[in-house]
Design a protein that fits this description.
With about 350 residues, this protein is an alpha+beta fold. It folds into two domains: about 240 residues, P-loop containing nucleotide triphosphate hydrolases (Rossmann fold, 3-Layer(aba) Sandwich), CATH 3.40.50.300; about 120 residues, OB fold (Dihydrolipoamide Acetyltransferase, E2P), CATH 2.40.50.100. Helices cover about 25% and strands about 35% of the residues. The chain has eight helices and 20 strands. The strands form four sheets. Strands 6-7-8-3-9-10 form a six-stranded mixed β-sheet, sandwiched between helices. Strands 13-12-11-14-20 form a five-stranded antiparallel β-sheet, with no helix packed on it. Helix 2 crosses helix 3, helix 2 packs parallel to helix 4 and helix 3 packs across helix 4.
């Protein structure tokens, strides 16, 4: 295999403990060159520990971390081909924007002319041209985040590590910066590894995502696969909203199942299982109607609307059904009509395609 074909990062059976807590438990994964890779999971799942081990701020108790073909076991943080952008940005308040960006190059004793040229290049890359003489307190939070990015990128690392880089921004700016960050990654062409607890952030930016819990990777896949075909219940619940139906599967011929469930009764579908299973459906897959649908291939259940919540482009509707947990549906607000189409107390039919139902055995 040519060096350019090798993954830029290989993590091989890495474990790390803090006292009795196992922050990383035999983690193995590869990250490709030029990939936007995300590590997500709940607080304490081990994602930040893994990022810090890549940066060299923590040392694995077991296993190997290889970056650009080199084992990082004896390589200090400042000698690694990576750079890190922290959650707090950590820009120096007493320095100008340009001085902040060029700081790492000055520490390497680069010539002043080279520092100035590369700083201007980095300013242009993050759309801060003309702001080099300002102090951090004279620019916005989003601009300070770009300063932190530029300071990391100016050293031209092979891998950029980002620890919750958007969490300090307000919701509107965070949404805008997601698009900018994804565009920036494609522009510079280097590998980005981001840690976030925000699954929508990862879904909108990453090429692949690793979902972690209790120090382990539960599933590693592209965003659409994680959302539409989660490998287990934890991933299904962590990635977006979802409805669960507990059931018991009875095998039938030709790889089919009869599943007896709470809430939606008996369901037949493709799959292999025997015993307790969970069926699941995403809220946006559910259609609400005043009348029962006669179309084939649909699962239909009647209920009463107990709550509605307006979110602008869509509304969430909670439907109480007999013999099961309330069902969450999401309907698109395609009309500007003032009066809601569905109100609390309305009797409705909930219907979704059988093919949109997920079968979870773990």
């Amino acid at each position: 295999m040519r060096p350019s074909d090798e993954p830029i990062i290989r993590i091989e059976n890495v474990s790390k403990t803090f006292g009795s807590v196992r922050a990383a438990d035999r983690v193995s994964l590869s990250i490709e060159r030029g990939e936007f890779f995300a590590l997500i999971g709940p607080s304490g799942c081990g994602k930040t520990t893994l990022l810090r081990m890549l940066a060299g701020f923590e040392t694995p108790g077991e296993g190997r971390i290889i970056v650009a073909g080199q084992d990082m076991a004896t390589v200090p943080p400042n000698k690694r081909p990576v750079n890190m952008v922290f959650q707090s940005y950590a820009v120096f308040p007493h320095m100008s924007v340009a001085e902040n960006i060029g700081y790492g190059l000055r520490m390497e004793n680069r010539p002043a002319k080279e520092i100035a040229a590369r700083t201007e290049e980095a300013l242009a890359l993050v759309k801060l041209s003309g702001l080099g003489n300002r102090r951090p307190d004279e620019i916005s939070g989003g601009q300070r985040q770009r300063v932190a990015l530029a300071r990391a990128l100016v050293k031209r690392p092979q891998v950029l590590l980002l620890d919750e880089p958007l969490s300090a921004l307000d919701a509107r700016l965070r949404d805008a910066m997601r698009l900018e960050l994804a565009h920036l990654q494609k522009t510079v062409g280097i590998t980005f590894v981001i840690v976030t607890h925000d699954q929508s952030e990862a879904l909108s930016m990453a090429d692949r995502i690793a979902v972690m819990n209790e120090g382990r990777i539960l599933q590693l896949a592209p965003p659409q696969t994680l959302y539409e075909a989660p490998g287990n219940r934890f991933v299904a619940e962590f990635i977006g909203k979802i409805n669960f139906f507990e059931g018991n599967a009875i095998p039938l011929p030709q790889n089919r199942l009869r599943i007896l469930t709470e809430g939606i009764g008996e369901v037949e579908m493709q799959g292999a299982a025997n015993g307790p299973v969970t069926l699941a459906v995403r809220p946006e897959k559910i259609q609400l109607s005043r009348h029962e649908s006669s179309a084939s291939g649909l699962i239909c259940v009647q209920g009463a609307v107990s709550e509605t919540s307006y979110h602008g482009g869509a509304s969430s509707v909670l439907v109480k059904i007999a013999g099961g947990k309330p069902l969450l549906a999401e309907i698109s607000n395609v009309s500007r009509a003032q009066s809601p189409l569905i109100s609390r107390g309305d009797k409705v039919w909930c219907a979704w395609r059988r093919d949109d139902m997920l079968l979870l055995t773990e």
